[in-house]
Design a protein that fits this description.
With 462 residues, this protein is an alpha/beta fold. It has 21 helices and 14 strands. The protein starts with a strand and ends with a helix. 28% of the residues are buried. Bound molecules: adenosine-5'-triphosphate and magnesium ion.
């Protein structure tokens, strides 16, 4: 069910839509003119507005503009008279979701409304989700899936196994799960399994009593005691030796630990989040990881995808790291040149977000101006060649966008010349793609036929 606002000066039309939409299960509010509709939008949350275009006083098109100014995401469907296709075009250009022509086709109305609703709700939901995790930057579909998973699994006591390549943000995800859990106020204790020699691992995990081995000069609590009633984060779990795997499994089954050299058994209540950059299924097949331990840890498995599978997140991550390192390094390098960003977008980042972070940190440190240029990205050779490879793989679009190749050229020519040159190239490109059909090219480029005709004349493309 959604909240729908209908604006129409004709009462019969308002009633008709109201009955139709009520039957579909929606809550409907009606307004007899644009002003009333605008007041309603500003005083209650709506999921959708349907408005007539021709109304006395403020028109539907003006209402659309006002609504978009107030809440750009709120979908607005316009009702147009059959005889006014120009209005429809204007409406779409100004951000209308769609238009329905009179006389109505009921099925058409229903389907337009359904798709407006589902798009709006998906967007609202994802904006809301990502705002729950401010420390994790990402708006790609892949990251939204992860936010959704974190959101759902965090309040439960289930053990989570986070896996993915190095530098993808597994630790951030683990922290986010803890801080959204019911034990967020209790300790979050991380341990990196690969960093501890086997002979010390048992004592690191379960503690030891004084004198139990050479060097054990005090009692030691160990990870599980420290994390009691909180979360233990076992990083690089794939590195555990078989003996420790067996001991860990027993602890998970019995929920109790016995410190090295001790006799007293201690009950513990710890949620385990484990992380690995290995494919544990392969480790199991190779006999290096216990399958039963895997199932205990991976009650909820969560894959963090590599950065190259979510390149859409790169611009926001770059921006985030620019602000971060400008602050840390006391500089004002808060932007990146579009060419430098383009190079980054073509790179595959084997080191994932950590590598991107390092590149930007270095860029900020080395940059003397206040915008990161390709020169200060200190691109490695592999990066340059992967950027070049990507360039030669693509079709002819990118060269079209490169109206200028350097800063000097840009300032030499000036904005107007560069923009005109780009416009000319794009129109030429549109005409080539459509075998010189101005009608189709205008469609493709989403401008009116008249304005395309004007521009082809202007640039001598006839
Ligand atoms: N989505 C993100 N938003 C902001 N920072 C991120 C994001 N993902 C990763 N980072 C940053 O990248 C670095 C690496 O992240 P993290 O340590 O969580 O990766 P990891 O997957 O645990 O890597 P490894 O497998 O090497 O331990 C950290 O500095 C982290 O803050
Ligand atoms: Mg890590």
């Amino acid at each position: 069910m959604s909240q729908i606002l209908i604006a129409d000066d004709e009462k019969s039309m308002r009633d008709f839509l109201k009955i139709l939409l009520n039957k579909e299960g929606h809550q409907v509010t009606t307004a007899k003119d644009a002003k009333e509709a605008l007041d309603a939008v500003k005083s209650a949350p709506f999921d959708l507005v349907i408005t007539d275009i021709r109304m006395p006083g403020m028109s539907g098109l003006e209402l659309l503009e006002e609504i978009k100014e107030y809440n750009i995401d709120l979908p607005v469907i316009m009702i147009t008279a059959f005889a006014s296709p120009d209005d429809a075009v204007t409406a779409m250009k100004n951000g209308a979701f769609d238009y329905i022509s009179k006389p109505f086709n009921v099925d058409e109305i229903k389907s337009v409304i359904a798709s407006a609703n589902s798009q709006y709700q998906a967007r609202e939901q994802s904006a809301c989700l990502s705002s729950l995790f401010p420390s994790i930057i990402g708006e790609s579909r892949e990251m939204l899936k992860i936010f959704d998973m974190i959101h759902r699994v965090a309040p439960t006591p289930a053990n989570v196994l986070i896996y993915g390549e190095s530098g993808t943000g597994k630790e951030l995800v683990a922290q986010a799960i803890h801080s959204h859990s019911q034990v967020a106020k209790n300790p979050f204790v991380p341990i990196t399994c690969s960093a501890i020699p086997e002979e010390l691992m048992e004592s690191e995990l379960f503690g030891h009593v004084k004198g139990s081995f050479t060097g054990a000069i005090h009692d030691k609590a160990g990870l599980f005691s420290e994390a009691d009633s909180g979360t233990a984060f076992l990083d690089e779990i794939g590195e555990l030796t078989p003996i420790i795997q067996t001991k860990l499994l027993r602890v998970l089954q019995e929920r109790e630990i016995k410190p090295v050299g001790g006799t007293k058994i201690k009950h513990i209540n710890v949620r385990i989040i484990a992380a690995t950059n290995k494919i544990l299924e392969e480790e199991i097949k190779a006999g290096r990881f216990r399958e039963d331990l895997f199932y205990r840890l991976a009650v909820v498995p969560l894959r963090v995808p590599p950065l190259r599978e979510r390149k859409g997140d790169i611009p926001r991550l770059v921006d985030h790291f620019l602000q971060k390192y400008s602050r840390i390094l006391g500089k004002e390098v808060r932007e990146i040149s579009s060419y430098a960003l383009e190079v980054l977008l073509k790179y595959d980042f084997p080191g994932n977000v950590r590598e991107l972070e390092n590149i930007i940190e270095r860029g900020v440190a080395l940059e003397n101006s206040n915008i990161v240029l390709p020169e200060s990205l200190s691109l490695s050779n592999s990066m340059r060649s992967s950027a070049r490879r990507a360039e030669s793989d693509e079709d002819d679009i990118p060269s079209i966008f490169c109206a200028v190749r350097s800063e000097e050229e840009l300032f030499d020519l000036g904005l107007e010349k560069v923009v005109n040159d780009l416009e000319k190239r794009l129109i030429q490109f549109g005409l080539e793609k459509t075998n010189n059909s101005k009608m189709k090219a205008a469609d493709l480029l989403q401008i009116s036929f008249r304005s395309l005709r004007y521009k082809t004349k202007k640039y001598g493309l006839d």
